[in-house]
């Protein structure tokens, strides 16, 4: 009997960082199930990645439990097994205006998608992950660790995601490991749906904000995900990994 190749499920995987992660694992020969709410982005992703046999694209709203249950059933019927879950789905725009005018519905929308969605995905994938000593990777943000004005809902949701990560690690170990990644400035323009053919080059000032000398790419995040779900990381759980080119360690003074 031929053993099934390993399988990974990536939410918010039709564009941006999620799409970069999906492409990385497709190239490694994994079966990749991409879940995304944006049907237009899913169609663009289908065209960009070429519909290989090891890719499944499924529409889902991760903030709704019935939708998660339905999408996971579809993914598991196709993939048969599950080795890794990447909770990447989220509302990307961090700014919501002054807190005095922030509507409760807007606050709740970010919590529902960025944090509750990860909880629901973990809740319903854990039985499948246990069978293969699987792994969960939550994509948080450096904004969980430092802030700009008017980003309370986004920062709170991403901070909660880091806390959810170490809680999952304790509850699910040793069967399932859980870690999070906090990306900094990641240039996702080439990985967006309907991406521009020749995006404007980033400025020297943009690059120089990073001790590494450049802005990050989705491939940088994908490489860390690949490590965290690999056997080489079997002693790593409950941790948050900052991928920001050293930006959060750099003291920046106003001119």
TrEMBL record:
Superkingdom of origin: Bacteria
Q: Does the keyword Oxidoreductase apply?
A: yes
Q: InterPro entries of this UniProt entry?
A: NAD(P)-bd_dom_sf (IPR036291), Sc_DH/Rdtase_CS (IPR020904), SDR_fam (IPR002347)
Looking at the Swiss-Prot or TrEMBL record, what is one Pfam family this protein matches? adh_short_C2
Gene Ontology MF, one: oxidoreductase activity
* Gene3D superfamilies according to UniProt: NAD(P)-binding Rossmann-like Domain
Q: Any idea which UniProt keywords this protein has?
A: Oxidoreductase
Region: Disordered; residue ranges are 197-216
Enumerate the PROSITE patterns for this protein: ADH_SHORT (PS00061)
Family affiliation: Belongs to the short-chain dehydrogenases/reductases (SDR) family.
> What is the recorded name of this protein?
NAD(P)-dependent dehydrogenase, short-chain alcohol dehydrogenase family
Lineage summary: Bacteria, Pseudomonadati, Pseudomonadota, Gammaproteobacteria, Pseudomonadales
């Amino acid at each position: 009997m031929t053993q099934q190749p390993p399988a990974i499920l990536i939410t918010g995987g039709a564009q941006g960082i999620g799409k970069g992660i999906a492409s990385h694992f497709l190239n490694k020969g994994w079966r990749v199930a991409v879940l995304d709410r944006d049907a237009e982005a899913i169609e663009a992703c289908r065209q960009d990645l070429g519909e290989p046999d090891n890719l499944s694209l499924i529409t889902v709203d991760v903030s709704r439990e019935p939708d998660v249950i339905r999408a996971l059933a579809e993914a598991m019927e196709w993939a048969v097994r599950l080795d890794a879950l990447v909770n990447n789905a989220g509302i990307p725009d961090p700014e919501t205006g002054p807190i005095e005018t922030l509507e409760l519905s807007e606050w709740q929308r970010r919590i529902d998608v960025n944090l509750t969605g990860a909880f629901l995905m973990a809740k319903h994938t854990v039985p499948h992950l246990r069978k293969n000593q699987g792994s969960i990777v939550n994509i948080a943000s450096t904004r969980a660790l430092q802030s700009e004005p008017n980003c309370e809902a986004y920062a709170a949701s991403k901070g909660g995601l880091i806390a959810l990560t170490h809680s999952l690690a304790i509850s699910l170990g040793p069967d399932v490991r859980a870690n999070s990644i906090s990306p900094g400035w990641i240039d996702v323009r080439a990985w967006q749906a309907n991406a521009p053919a020749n995006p404007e080059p980033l400025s020297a000032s943009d690059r120089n904000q990073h001790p590494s000398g450049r802005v990050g790419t989705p491939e940088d995040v994908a490489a860390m995900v690949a490590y965290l779900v690999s056997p080489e990381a079997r002693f790593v759980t409950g941790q948050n990994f900052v991928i920001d080119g050293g930006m959060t360690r750099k003291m920046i003074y106003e001119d």
